[in-house]
Amino acid sequence: MEHPLSQSPAESRLMNGATLALVCLGLYLPLFWQLPLWRSEAMYALIPQEMLAAGSWLTPTLNGAPYLDKPQLLYWLQLLSYKLLGVSEWSARVPTLAITVGEVWLTYLIGRRLVGQIAAWLGGVILLTCIGFFVLHLLILTDHLVTLSLLAALYGLLRWEAQPGFRWTALFFLALVAGFLSKGFIGFVFPGMIGLLYAWQVGERRLLRLLFSPGGIILAAILLLAWGVATESANPGFLKFQIVNEQIMRFLGRRSPPDVNSFTLAGFYVFLGIWLMPWTFILPDALYRFWQATRPGREVGAAGRLLLIWAVVILGFFTLSSNRLEYYSLPALPALALILGWRIKRYLDTPGDRLIPWTLLALGLLGLSLLVLLPFLEQVCVDNRREFSGMVSLISPLARQATWFIPAVALTGVLAARLRRPHLAVAAYGVLAVAVAWFTFQTMAVLTPLQCDQTAGEYLRRAASPQDLVIMGPIEEFEYGASLEFYARRRILMVKGPDGLPQFPYPVPPALDYLITPERLQELWQGPRKVFLLLDNATPPEFFLRDAAVALTLPGRRLLVNRP
Question: Which of 59, 134, 351, 464 could form a disulfide with 468 if both were Cys (CB 3.0 to 4.6 A apart)?
Fold first, then answer.
């Protein structure tokens, strides 16, 4: 089902999946090892490190205690990387780089079949350069595997629709298995719902033969049964905890303990707009015109509705869910990027189309108001994670550069459009997108001291003896202590806050329990052993810590010691 739109041989040679993969590598390779592990991602590097040290492929542990929150597929990829390349922060990110290339490649392959080669290539570039995809793929997340498995399943569905065969059935169901082993039931729900709605929309009842293929179901069942039996045998109670607490109760907002950083619905969609920057302003017009173009007999046709259904299923699911984080919209970005790529292609083919100049003008005005908007963005971030406190003062110098660079490039694109040079206008937009990505990376580098415990961990590796205690002050979730442990190369204790959090959602043996009360902290602090305590500045210190010696002062936090 190749798209009938034609393109010149030169365009076919330049705008293909291979060149898009090279663009992806050219953008990410110079950057992905330059950032240390942030608190929000370090657990995905630490867990496989501990699994490797223990020689266990079935029992994830975090700081020595069982960690049953997620299936193991991402950990297995990290383990393979560690075995081949050694344990380091950059080898921990190698699987993410491979996943990133795979996502971009599959986005292009799906787009080529639905919107044509040029629009698919443009969609791939848009995906690479939108802030959300760029930022999140510099970090390790299970959601990247969810997105990759969804893309693989939908590509298998399209290939099966064009030419039914077991290899495409196998690809579809293996992708479902990979999605489940990445993050649970959404690995089934997303491609299954999208496939069913697509079959209904295009009137392709024969697609039900794929979605309910006995051979495919048996293949998936065998693999998941083998995984379930092995994992449950190694970790009794794992499956019940996964299915009930982490899947059903999380969706209903009744997970125990409750997630402390779930985003409001408004915040979720605000971040969707941020993640799509600088292409966000094109989206409303692109969605409307694309929907019109999927009508029977129009340029895209009914098959293009797959992209709309795809985005609606992902966003609709998290709209209904009581639990959502700012990056849960990630699996919808490839579909939206392809729609945006189609709209850019239409602009290039339509004389007099004013979409790009007006959008560039809006981006220029947004760039001018960046310094005014930053405090509001900080507040949204701090409401979710307090370590973002103080980010405005750190990134203001970069923001001041962006306030003149973004309007200057945008104005160049507007002038090119006025001179009827649409390709130059789109090129200016592309330069603007790359510049925004660069400013974003520089922002991440500047914010790293607030988000990462590398400096404190390396100091402790030098200054703390094996008998000394290392304790992290109250944090929202115990997973955020992984950065300190990874760089300190030792297990740590963590203090519960006044609300009793963090808290394990499953029983942990007392010998492995590293969560302590403030009262226990006081006992240890005043006891005979030397104690190092990493405390965020946003946390009011206990009365017995107010005159404590400071071993290390860091942005947003300080390392205290009871016996200087």
Answer: 464
DSSP-derived secondary structure for 248-279 = IIHHHT--SSPPTTPPPHHHHHHHHHHHTTTS
Q: Give every CB contact of residue 557 below 8 A, 6+ residues apart in sequence.
A: 456, 534, 535, 536, 537
Domain boundary among 329, 349, 369: 349
Contact of 232 with 238, CB cutoff 8 Å: yes
Residue 290 sits in the same domain as residue 387 = no
Q: Do 391 and 329 belong together in one domain?
A: no
pLDDT digits (tens, 9 = 90+) for 491-527: 999 999 888 888 888 888 999 999 999 999 999 999 9
Whether residues 257 and 391 fall in one domain: no
Interacting residues of 369 by C-beta distance below 8 A, sequence separation 6+: none
Give the residue with greater pLDDT, 75 vs 504: 75
Give me the residues paired with residue 320 across strands: none
The DSSP code for 416 is H
Residue with token string 């039900």: 208
Count Cβ neighbours within 10 Å for each residue of 205-238 and write b for 16 or more, e otherwise. Answer: eebeebbebeebeebbeebbeebeeebeeebeeb
Helix locations, 117-253, DSSP H: 117-129, 131-136, 142-162, 166-183, 186-202, 207-211, 214-234, 238-240, 250-252
Report d(CA 22, CA 28) in Å as an integer.
10
- In angstroms, how far is CA 206 from the centroid of its own chain? 34
Is 281 in the same domain as 377?
A: no
Q: For residue 468, give both structure tokens.
A: 């000394």
Per-residue pLDDT reduced to its tens digit, 312-325: 999 999 999 888 88
| Pair of tokens at residue 169 | 């059935």
pTM of the model: 0.92
The pLDDT tens digits of the residues spanning 5-51 come to 445 555 566 778 889 999 999 989 888 888 999 998 999 999 999 99
> Is residue 203 domain-shared with residue 263, that is, in the same domain?
yes
